[in-house]
Amino acid sequence: MAFDNAYEALTEDAGGLGDRWAHGTGFQDALSGVDDTVPAGVDLTAAARHVLGLADDALVMAHRLSEWCTHAPELEEEVALANIALDLLGQARSLLARAAQLDPGLRPAGVPGHVPDEDALAFFRAAEDYRNVRLVEAPHGDFGHLVARLLVFSTWRLALLDRLSGSRDPVVAAVAAKAVPEVAYHRDHAAGWAVRLGDGTDESHRRVAEGLAEVWPLVEELFATTDAERTAVADGTGVDPATTRAEFADVLSRVCDQATLDPPGMDDRGAGDAPAVPRGRTGQHTAALRDLLAEMQSVARAHPEGRW
Amino acid sequence: MPSAEEVMTVTDRRTGHGPDGARRPPEATLADETEAQARFERLIAEDQRIEPRDWMPEAYRATLIRQVAQHAHSEIIGMQPEGAWLTRAPSLRRKAILLAKVQDEAGHGLYLYSACETLGADRADLTEKLVTGRQKYSSIFNYPTLSFADVGVIGWLVDGAAICNQVPLCRSSYGPYARAMIRICKEESFHQRQGYELLMTMMGGTEEQRAQVRDAVDRWWWPSLMMFGPPDAESPNTARSMAWRIKRHTNDELRQRFVDITVPQAEALGVSLPDPDLRWNAERGHYDHGPIDWDELSRVIRGDGPCNAERIATRRAAHRDGEWVRRAASAHAAKRAARDAVGAGVAG
């Protein structure tokens, strides 16, 4: 067999094995093969800002999930969490590249030209320039906290992506179409665990309920709309997160019901209520993001001229 | 080297419970057992596979459980040295590759524990033996990873050595192990390739990066050679494992093969290997290498490697911290089953 000779294995073509890797090992251009024309009449700055938020959510969440590696409660869960992290990382890469394409001004100044846009944005941006929601920032707590956060995050993100698959931006539409089945799996996985833990033992019930209570103060922000999002919606490239509230509340209440958990109160907002206020999307972050980035960016920043 | 027949004459013929709590078929008569043993020997001699339901000598079963469990443990502990760089990978492409690789290793551990369970072992029991130090894992994972170049060198040298060791196991006499190894070897060759490609890229980078690559190669070369185990003269289990076709080549044969494959790769990479005695021997048609510090291997196996305590502590903490989760999953499954039974009772 071909693998009898390790040297051959080094030089031969991937030979069909490439699709085993979430996003291949060879591709350098995150947008390769995707129609990347920009539709006419679009406010590029707003469109880029909108895409950047979606990218940063995925990047930071993927990073936090990757911290679970070698700490999961079961080997099957090691595989599943790595899989979810890989999916999100793939989404982040494509969206970061698109954001920089739409608005080259997002690329931090002074980053050497050989560094791809996705890495310039991931490794050479300061915390205040990140546009992710605060939900994804906290270091991982116990498995109950992980399940609660993943359930909330993937329920919300799936609702967003579902709407974005009809975006006028062909890249956003393509990324969303690919990501919908991925995030549907993430949501199923989290919901399955929420039910197992909620309707498991007294201890597991308590822990997942505590997890849900911990992430709940960060939920309202998910439905806040920024100016950039409003513009992107008007241009037909974006989605207004406020429109996902009803779907989110419905899914959470059904999962909590199965899990014998009391759903934390969902605001039942009507006309005239004050709208939710964006935080992370406007660069207001918790201290946890600064710590996360200090670690994530350490090697890249120590070798700005390095080749990886 | 004894033939399979010679080995069989000293085979353990005990019945009853085997090591690791392995399940046994009901007590067989002596005549049945003699016939079963004859069939086992014939299958081995004809290079056929032994399958889980086939009769097998207790010592064959025990040897396999020990070897496959040790291999599974190595995959799981082996996630740690590289996993330590996941949060600091310097490009998103490298982060994705590394995450996929570490994920593969968890998957390899799963296939191998499953193969072990076909022999009657139990994963929870094997994990308990690992975290209490009663079963071993490859001593290579007791060395630290000091820079991102280590990720590349582990792929190139450590996975490279593993491939040399493991490709012949795809023809191992025990079917489930052999089949697991085919998939594992395909993935390992990919792992090796990404490591080598990372090193090639770093060698084309800054002087500081080249220094990191050289430093990592210097640290990992000798431990990689030790991965093949003690020299043949001091490897008590080799002859029997070869007679049973669990192993196909001796430790020294595999080590030589690795050296012969790796030296040209080092030249292509532009690094020198830290062995002044390493040179081509035209007479033998192989590279000669200097003496290996077997005392170091013994020390690391005994537990005195740089990271033994840390590796086991991490695995033990994950296992202990996950206990309430596993208990919850079982409790929930039991509740569901009870509810389904009530539902079925009503329906029936």
TrEMBL record, chain A:
Q: Where is this region: Disordered?
A: 260-283
Matches recorded under InterPro entries: Aromatic_CoA_ox/epox, Ferritin-like, Ferritin-like_SF, PaaA_PaaC, PaaC
SUPFAM superfamilies linked to this entry: Ferritin-like
Pfam families, A to Z: PaaA_PaaC
In terms of domain of life, where is this protein from? Bacteria
User: What name does the UniProt record give this protein?
Assistant: Ring-1,2-phenylacetyl-CoA epoxidase subunit PaaC
TrEMBL record, chain B:
Q: Which SUPFAM superfamilies match?
A: Ferritin-like
Where on the tree of life does the source sit, at the highest rank? Bacteria
Q: Where is the composition biased (Basic and acidic residues)?
A: 11-26
Stretches the record annotates as Disordered: 1-30
Xref: InterPro entries: Aromatic_CoA_ox/epox, Ferritin-like, Ferritin-like_SF, PaaA, PaaA_PaaC
UniProt-recorded name of the protein: Ring-1,2-phenylacetyl-CoA epoxidase subunit PaaA
Upper lineage is: Bacteria, Bacillati, Actinomycetota, Actinomycetes, Pseudonocardiales
